[in-house]
Write a structure and sequence with these properties.
mainly alpha, Growth Hormone, Chain: A
Amino acid sequence: MKDIQQLSNGYLNKTPLFQFILLSCLFPLWGAAASLNDILITQFKSVFTLSDFASALVQSAFYGGYFLIAIPASLVIRKTSYKVAILIGLTLYIIGCSMFYPASHMATYTMFLAAIFSIAIGLSFLETSANTYSSMIGHKDYATLRLNISQTFYPIGAISGILLGKYLIFQEGESLGKKMQNLTPEQLHSFKLSLLEYTLQPYKYLIFVLIGVTILFLVTQFPKCKPVSENKEKVRFIDTLKYLARNSKFKKGIIAQFLYVGMQVAVWSFTIRLALNLSDINERTASNFMIYSFIGFFIGKFIANFLMTKFKSDTVLIWYSILGVITLAYTAFVPNFSAVYAAIFASVLFGPCWATIYASVLDTVKQEHREIAGAIVVMSIIGAAVIPAIHGFVSDSLGSLQLAFIVPLFCFAYVGYYFFDKRSEK
């Protein structure tokens, strides 16, 4: 840290490697929590006999927490530091995981949603601070690249979450539907209670990991990365909101991020269910397709990072979006198991979207407004509470989970339009 100097704009003259790696290790932590939701949706649908819309409320509870807490988290960052906000987030994450203990014994859907919401509150602190901090912790010229590198850690956590769910929540043998067909009411009740006990297992392991990461952050020195400005004290919260409300480029970016996150979570939420609907396999086997999705997501990021060294990021995202629309159309309308592989390929195309949109949106905002602007970008994650619910509603209305994939299709079309429009404005 001795050779590292903070510049007046808040960026550093070079990146402190250990701190950047530790910061990037936060990204798989919320990746694991998010992918576990995809497991829980499938499990809860069978245990609580839910409609597709009701099962999607897992995502609504999770991402609703992001929406409500992002602004308070940004105010904490403004008053203190990124490190303090991260420590608060990790603590709240641990508390949320601990709530699965009473939830698994009370055996009510509402209590599980409350536990998931509590985890999301902690993750909102983590994402609000870590995304912006990752872009700031080094030279400004490499801000987008740093965020893309940090985001590359996300699929590692997502794959870990799916593996935890696959082996600790899902069981071997026939699918849950078949197992429950011939049970008496008493046997069915006992069987469902045992299934809910399994949901606790992954969160036990997460608690230990989170405690270790929290200790590392406590003992590690981090740079402030706060801009030095004579006008800093004059920038009020309400002034920032007014500035952002007048910024049309910022608003278009928020819509793009809202729809992107929504379509990503919608596709991931229903991939396991799509595999179950189109074949005669059990939940544990079907969860493999989510592992393939996250591997594809990881590969998609690397390919995009390479392409962005050859072409402009806007051009890369336009072509990713065109391919995404075609892929999701195939998923929605081709009535055989190849549609599942199309959904997996869509995850390859999701790879660069979040980080590129995030950096693109922040680039439209003056430096003194970025802490609040970053929080509002994180708030756009509420799209993951809305779009999967719409997907579930369309599925229930049409009587076809597969046809409902037209919902994320339209979302990807807007992402392509956003980058096409952005490039046209230059």
